[in-house]
Amino acid sequence: MEEAERKGKFTPQTILLLVVNGLFAAANALSGTFVGVYLWKAKSNFAMIGFFTLCIYVAMALTFWLAGKWVKEYNKMYALRLGVAVSATFYLLVLLFGTRAVSYIWLLGTVQGMAAGFFWLAYNVVYFEVTGPKTRDRFNGWAGVLGSSAGMTAPWISGLVIVHMPGMTGYRTIFSVSLGIFLIGVIASFFLRNRKVQDDYAWGYMVTCLRQKQTPWHTVAAALVAQGFREGVFGFIIGLLVYISTADESKLGSFALITSAVSFASYWLVGKLLKPRLRKWGMLAGVLAMTLVIVPFFWQMSYLTLLVFGIGTALFFPMYSIPMTSSVFDLIGQSAESARRRVELIVMRELALSAGRVMGTSLFVAVTFWSKSPPVFTTLLLVIGASPLLSWWFMRGQFIAKAKSA
Hints:
Keywords: Membrane, Transmembrane, Transmembrane helix. The protein is mainly α.
């Protein structure tokens, strides 16, 4: 660990990683917000959108597991750049397929899942290496600030471009701009340093770890599954619901602008103020609030109730995500042995998240295929949206242990 890291300061590598993350977030925010809408306009079917998302999560999990050997034993920066390049390929395919994209759902989902797998595996390993317990919460706060900044401006601009250009020209324009931003991200990644890991990749480490009786990873893995259960569905459904309620891409852009502005402020504040000793109760307050903002949907699913949900989630989500992420990575770095196995543990983290995402999305596809009833749909959202409560329940012992050692 570098001297600046020990003193709780950001290093040039830390700042550069934030830049790469910001570029990746900007490119995805510019176009990713509207991919679901693009597919919905071609074929209005919740189950189809859910299947597309399911393909993403399965491909992402497999890529994490298979690419782990490459990242650990060779050069993780190649995986990071490949993730950005494959993301660009995804948008290129969408441009080439045009309105026929719905006929290639499985291919598009697989490509996007591979892109996310390569990028986030390498990113998370580098994130672990350039941050420490003293800088992790602050780094996550700044990463959230950059992501929120991208989420404020990019979808708003995209929405205006789409509605003011004829046909699908607006979509083709924003997808093309995303390609350019991804290329800039690849160039920036060349300045990140590759830290060698002197070990072979253990393919079955997750099974070996979870078979140990005293390991805290039993409850942490369960918490991650619960986290992924919500992420899997809410990552794509809210933007789609906003478009369905308004039939206006510019309204979706405005929704992203408003909610991301709130998220920007919240990430900055929580990243600055939330200390390890406060994680337990801060996270509980966050997950309770995130669950309560779903309740207005039982009265009406409208732009107003969606905006209430969006603002409420943006305000309280950092109280949930920052403690969750920081605590898991603190656990990875708690000993020399676990740090040595950081790639395997990061893969295990992702596999647990992906298991939750696949379970949540599969439930969503099954229920929406079975029933189109609004009360059933809203109840489904509440059940899925309440899963972070289980994350807090499983993580609470980890927070207590961290507070005692702080």
